[in-house]
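Why does residue order matter? Because the sequence determines the fold. Keep that principle in mind as you read this record.
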Amino acid sequence: MSDSPVDDKSESAEEGASPASGVDRSSAEKAVAGWVAALIKGEIGQACLLMAEPADGSEPAQVGSEKTCGDDAPERKRMEATLGQFKESFTPDPPSDAPKVEVTQAPGTGDKVTVPADRIKVDGQALDKIVLSHSTGVTQDQLDVKVESSRINDSWYVTNLDFNVG
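Structure:
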């Protein structure tokens, strides 16, 4: 195994899995489940590899790679500050060292799927209920959490998190 950064173009196209990192981008559900599990475990690098910025106008899509998600990458440092705060919010009680995350979602149409938090289960508990259990003074009808996944270059990535309270 070489020490050179893994480029997404070398990724296995058949399954959307990156053998070097162990992330599975073969479906929107697997990308979202892997991303949520990585956040709970505090594995920001793994979460980063499952994230992307969709193409915008003339700007090409920017997908998480070993280069952009490495320990010293500026993108990773920004993500640690932002995503680290979701670790507690997404962790069920009792916490687990190896959370089992399942995503149940009707197949999306096209290249974008939005998964509401009630379709994401962590150790059998709905993510919206977990987030609510960590919130003070917030009711179920005030909480709106959704994870968006998009297909980019035949692999699925998390491309947006809507986390609305109010």
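Strands lie at 17-18, 23-24, 52-53, 62-63, 101-103, 112-116, 120-122, 125-126, 143-152, 155-165.
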